[in-house]
Amino acid sequence: MRLSKGLSRRQLETQAEVPHGIISRLESADRAYPSVPVAMRLARVLGVTLDYLCGMYEDDESEWEPAAGDLVSA
User: Fold this and answer.
1) Half-sphere exposure of 49 (CA within 13 A, CB side)
2) pLDDT of res. 72
3) What DSSP designation does 35 have?
4) Please, are residues 68 and 59 in contact by the beta-carbon 8 Å criterion?
5) Is 72 within a domain?
6) Structural domain range at position 40
């Protein structure tokens, strides 16, 4: 999602006001779960809901399913 928005890791960290290196750790699964405040700031900058960022979205039949490449392991 970050790449589709044309953002480098550093740009996303700066815009979301999150600690340096956190995006790298999240993307490499070195840290699988961001804090809620960090997740909220990332969702805002990426233009998605917190549910979407956590890997949940509503499909055509209104059932919740994990999104591919989610941040949270099931």
Assistant:
1) 7
2) 46
3) -
4) no
5) no
6) 9-66
CATH label of the domain that carries residue 22? 1.10.260
7-64 confidence digits (pLDDT tens): 999 999 999 999 988 899 888 877 678 889 999 999 999 999 998 888 887 654 445 4
Q: How far apart are the first and last CA of the chain?
A: 20
What are the angstrom distances between the C-alpha of 34 and each of 5, 19, 60, 63? 20, 11, 28, 25
Give the global pTM: 0.70
d(CA 1, CA 60): 21
DSSP 1-32: -TTTTT--HHHHHHHHT--TTHHHHHHTTSS-
How many structural domains compose the chain?
1
In a domain, 71, yes or no: no
Q: Is residue 38 part of a domain?
A: yes
